[in-house]
Amino acid sequence: MRPADEDPDDLVTVGRFIDPIAAELARSRLESDGLICFVQGGGLGSLLPTATVFPILLQVRVADVDRAAEILDEDPTGPFKML
Length: 83
Hints:
The chain has 83 residues and is of the alpha+beta class. It has one domain. The protein is built from two helices and three strands; from the N terminus they run E-H-E-E-H. The protein has a three-stranded antiparallel beta sheet, covered by helices on one side. The longest helix is centred in the first third of the chain and has 13 residues. The N and C termini lie far apart (27 Å).
């Protein structure tokens, strides 16, 4: 149950990545299941050795957190490997 003041459209981080390709694969997988999601970070900065300090975040709406977690947990050793 969500707190009364929590908006179901607020964004929540469901994954942290150091590999921009893995982050985009996960985003694509969630979107193929109809979820709206966003990748925060990445770009050129993700290719630097300090990328682990600034991970790439995969975010979904609060209303979609449970479904996103199910999808990303389907194959924990697969392409959606997270930090």
